[in-house]
Structure formats: structure tokens, C-alpha cells
Amino acid sequence: MSEVRAIVTDIEGTTTPIAFVHQVLFPYARERLAAFVAAHGGEAEVVRTLAEARVLGGIPEASTDETVALLLSWIDEDRKAGPLKFLQGLIWRQGYEAGVLKGPVYADAAAMLRRWHERGLRLFVYSSGSEEAQKLIFGYSDQGDLTPLFEGFFDTRIGGKLEASSYEAIARAAQMPADAMLFLSDHAGEIAAARAAGMQAVLIDRATPPELWHDEAGALVAGSFEAAERACMATAPRR
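Above: the chain's sequence. Below: its structure in C-alpha cell form.
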């Protein structure tokens, strides 16, 4: 890929159907949260996480049942709370390890990630899901274990996905100039933030035929990862 030395990819809607997170993962954790806390509530990391949830929720003296109710309300609100993400990750890990859960990854995404890795491009993930959740989706994917392809995983601890400073921080962490990195996402706001930070960026729109790409108001839009590569190569001389 001309001029690009590293690729940062989003997950939901980009490598993986959005429906998987909202229709499979969230309900799976919700149904098992109370039982998981009852079974593991005495373990140090769970004790600590429940205490953090109570403080964050403004109910530091709440009972275990009240804390579980708080966490369930956060799931229903789709709140990106650290303690909830951590517990969801533990529950999901059990599901993946048991073979009940399998991370769906678009075939074109898996193929291009492998191809880019073979070419020596550095690969990273940046998603609103926790680093643990990211590794589970790619580690137990229906395209095989893809985690060895990635050099690093970033979640919102590095910053919000609509903030240019987050992408600047990723470039610093990778010790690379931002303009040598390509960000792929299905969210126009994230694309704009990455571009504001100096990264190259392509909006992955899976409603577009997978072989096609186009330029929309100065931003590249592609129907697949392969089309995203062609778009960058075709437009590289104009950068």
C-alpha cells in the first residue's frame, strides 16, 4: 500500500457485523451477569470491580443485588463504563472458551489483514470495546485466531473515538508519524477525527458493492478492505 506503513482498524461495522455485539454479546452477558457475580463475587478482581461500579454509580454502600441491578441498567443504556466492560469481558471469555461464542469477522477483512501482515505492515485495533473484548473477538473468530497479526490493541482508555487527540496518541504509542497510518472505520465521525489528527482514513461502507470505492466530499469510502487498499493506492499521488 503506497505510503502507508501501519493500519488501525475499528471492529463494529468494520471487521465485524454490528449486530454481533448488540444482538449476541450484550444479551449473553446480561443473562449471565447475576449468576457470574454470585459464583465469583469473592474473587479479588471481581470484588474490586464491583466496588468501582458502586463508586461510579454513586451508591458506594449498595448491596451486591443493587450493584448487579446498576450494572444491568448500564447494559440497557449501552453505557461504556469500565467496571461493566471488565465483567462483560470475563463472562464473554467463558463463552468463547466453551465454544458457545465465536467472533464473526468479514472474510475480506481477515484476508486483507493477513495479506497486509505478510507485507510487513503494522496492524492495530482501536475500538470502543475493551482491549480484552477485542482480543476475544479476533482470537476466537470464525476466520481463525487473528490476534498474532496485530501489534497492539487500543480502547477508549486512550481517548474517545471522536477526538483527534486519541488518534494522535495512537500514533505516538506506535512511534510513527500519523500520516503513515491508515484508519478504517464505518463511522464518519471517527474518520473525521482520524483525518484531523493527520492519519489517512477510509470509511468502510458495506452497503457499497465490495469491489467499489469512491471519493465523497474529500473522504474515501470503500465497500471492502480490498477496495480500501485500491482507493489509497489510486489516490496516493495526490497526497
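The chain has a mean pLDDT of 94.
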